[in-house]
Amino acid sequence: MTHILGIETSCDETAASVVIDGKVIASNVVASQIDLHAAYGGVFPEVASRAHVEAIGPVVEQAMVDSGIGYDSLDAIAVTRGPGLVGSLLVGMNYAKGLALATGKPLLGINHLEGHVYSLWLSDMRSEPRFPILLLIISGGHTELLLMKGHGKYERLGGTLDDAAGEAFDKVGRLLGLPYPGGPHIERAAQNGNAAVFSFPRAKRDDSYDFSFSGLKTAVMREVTVQPSAEVRRKRKRGAEKKAQLRADVSVNDVAASFQVAVVEQIVSKTARAAKQYGVNEIFMAGGVSANQLLRAEMRKATQIPVRYPPLNLCTDNAAMIAAAAHYRYEAGLRDELDLDVKPMWPLTSDAYDK
Ligand code: KG4
Ligand code: ZN
Questions:
Q1: Is the shortest distance between the CB of 169 and ligand 1 below 6 Å?
Q2: Domain 131-309 class?
């Protein structure tokens, strides 16, 4: 049996959690900075690192107290090594190193994307997942389609060529005057909107498993904002009047619903096709956007293959998923040195598991 403390500070959540055997959550503390960043309409890196510095100590202490497990009983300390904001990653990494040094417990650096994958193992799994599994990681920073052939064995099939799916939700949310992060607010607005009002572009019909969301975002912008006069365009070149203005005759709810459907259709069509081509046994969706109810429903409709996703609180960033991913590395005998570096850019490949 393993008891692993996980620490996550890659973006705008300071999180710590103790997980038993990669499956059972003994504690799960998440201090969100959403309120801090809302004013900027996105994550402000400098503000994020400072907030992590302030929160990390109390968050880790709380996770230990909640778990009822002492530092002596831990088997390892796991921390997100990347990808993410460098200043934010460093806060978690340095704290984890300090703890590893003080307690004599081994350190494990974890890929954040692999963490999202293992949020699935923390979910109520009535049956053990059967490989190969098609993974769809869709968050504010990532849109990745991967084939998972075993623990730590990944093959990348495709990903976004421009904005991440969550990023598109956030940008369109901002355009519509909705609070940050846009995803959940767009979903809520869409419930009272008509998705047939606007016909936004869908996926290109090609054979790739790559995604693109920036064209969609631009189409939304063109459709719903007041087209600037020549004078305003001139001013904009000089950096003034940046903010696009929503047309008075468009309904935010209708735009939200029409946009959401276009994003969901693109994601579902590519994922369902990949699942069929690679003959997978399951489809796993993880990351913040996998919280989207329309996406979940449409994915289930599009394929006979079982579709799983984490419970809502494990879709977005947390440290339980980091501890869960670490369990399999720990069991495989992997350990990291105390001079481990952070990796702000770190694709999820099988190498990520090997080191
Ligand atoms: O996984 P996550 O917490 O952070 C990253 O690793 O990026 O994902 C956050 C992203 C945000 O872009 C947010 O707008 C999106 O997930 N999101 C959603 C929903 N809930 C969160 N997008 C669509 N529908 C939702 N219900
Ligand atoms: Zn994430």
A1: yes
A2: alpha beta
